[in-house]
């Protein structure tokens, strides 16, 4: 990534050297310049000959994107857009900005795309997602409502609205939005999201949705419905049934870290600290960067009065997630002896 940033700076500082670079969006020519090496060299030569051809910048941008050169690709998408705006160049540019984490610039370009291509439903939805990610939730919700007022059969927008309402803790409205999405397009992604909401609110409809998905999973590969059933049983305090479901989930996907954590929590709530600790350790082994596993290992050690071990694992959880308030509070609590 550091090398790419240096390239980006080089591009910015030498943007005026078009004749040497094969286009206004390219860095200065040099032996080490990747734009003059395969697979980019041929397109770069063509850009030098035809510097106003938007399709050439688009072609090179796509090549750069496929090789993870997103800073350079972003500049070529921008140049293609400036020469001849198209949905393809707009989508590519937005995708690069997303990877680069340039949310404000992404919002600006999405707004331009919406004005330029008013018939497109993709750009408004992408704008809604981006606004939601940036915690501009009221703006995102207004956008989704406007889209649905124009087309109440837009299942993708119903789904995105449901996710946003779930984020806002408006469970009742989130359920309704997701139900609409599932009714219009009964795909597993939508049904599982709805089932998870049902499970969190202790609604047995979660089981029916999950069982339907399992019955139609002819290849027997999906772990998620078993995980969601486990969440439901945990929430209604049927912990033995929950453990069975989490085990089924892990059998389908042994790297499903959340299943280990939730299974361990089921043991913890029964005060079976030995089984809980073993399960959380497995989760930490499967993914040694999961802060939840270390937090719950700390909880187990705290419960069995092993203060130093609890502190060590709380520290690990906080180190992995600086915003993990529960782990930080637990760490302070154990250190203070309260």
Textual characterization of the structure:
Helices cover 74% and strands 0% of the residues. With 338 residues, the protein is an all-alpha fold. The protein has a domain of 101 residues: Alpha Horseshoe (Serine Threonine Protein Phosphatase 5, Tetratricopeptide repeat). The chain is globular and about 75 Å long.
Structure in a nutshell:
The chain is mainly alpha-helical and 338 residues long. 74% of the residues lie in helices and 0% in strands. It has a domain at 1-101: Serine Threonine Protein Phosphatase 5, Tetratricopeptide repeat (Alpha Horseshoe).
Q: At CATH's second level, what is the architecture of the domain at 1-101?
A: Alpha Horseshoe
Low-confidence stretches: 1-32
The residue fraction in helices comes out at over 70%
Number of strands: 0
Class of the domain at 1-101 in CATH? Mainly Alpha
The major beta sheet can be summarized as: none
Structural class: mainly alpha
The percentage of residues in β strands lies in under 5%
Shape: globular
Might you state the CATH topology name of the domain at 1-101? Answer: Serine Threonine Protein Phosphatase 5, Tetratricopeptide repeat
């Amino acid at each position: 990534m550091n090398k790419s940033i240096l390239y980006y700076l080089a591009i910015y500082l030498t943007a005026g050297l078009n004749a040497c670079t094969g286009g206004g969006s390219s860095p200065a020519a040099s032996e080490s310049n990747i734009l003059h090496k395969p697979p980019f060299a041929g397109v770069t030569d063509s850009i030098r000959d035809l510097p106003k051809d938007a399709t050439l910048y688009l072609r090179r941008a796509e090549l750069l994107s496929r090789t993870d050169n997103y800073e350079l690709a972003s500049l070529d998408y921008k140049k293609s857009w400036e020469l001849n705006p198209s949905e393809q160049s707009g989508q590519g540019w937005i995708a690069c900005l997303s990877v680069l984490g340039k949310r404000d610039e992404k919002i600006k370009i999405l707004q331009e795309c919406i004005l330029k291509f008013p018939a497109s439903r993709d750009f408004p939805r992408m704008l809604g997602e981006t606004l939601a990610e940036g915690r501009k939730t009221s703006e995102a919700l207004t956008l989704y409502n406007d889209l649905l007022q124009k087309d109440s059969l837009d299942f993708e927008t119903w789904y995105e609205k449901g996710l946003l309402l779930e984020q806002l803790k408006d469970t009742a409205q989130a359920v309704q939005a997701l139900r609409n999405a599932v009714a219009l397009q009964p795909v597993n992604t939508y049904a599982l999201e709805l089932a998870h909401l049902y499970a969190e609110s202790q609604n047995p409809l979660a089981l029916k949705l999950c069982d339907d998905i399992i019955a139609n999973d002819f290849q027997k590969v999906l772990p998620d419905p078993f995980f969601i059933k486990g969440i439901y049983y945990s929430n209604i305090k049927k912990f033995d049934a929950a453990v069975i479901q989490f085990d089924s989930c892990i059998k389908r996907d042994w790297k499903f870290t959340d299943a280990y954590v939730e299974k361990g929590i089921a043991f913890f709530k029964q005060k079976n600290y030995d089984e809980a600790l073993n399960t959380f350790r497995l989760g930490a082994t499967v993914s040694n960067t999961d802060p939840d596993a270390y937090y719950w290992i700390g909880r187990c050690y705290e419960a069995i009065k092993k203060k130093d071990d609890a502190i060590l694992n709380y520290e690990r959880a906080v180190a992995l997630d600086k915003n993990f308030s529960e782990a930080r509070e637990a760490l302070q609590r154990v250190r203070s002896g309260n």
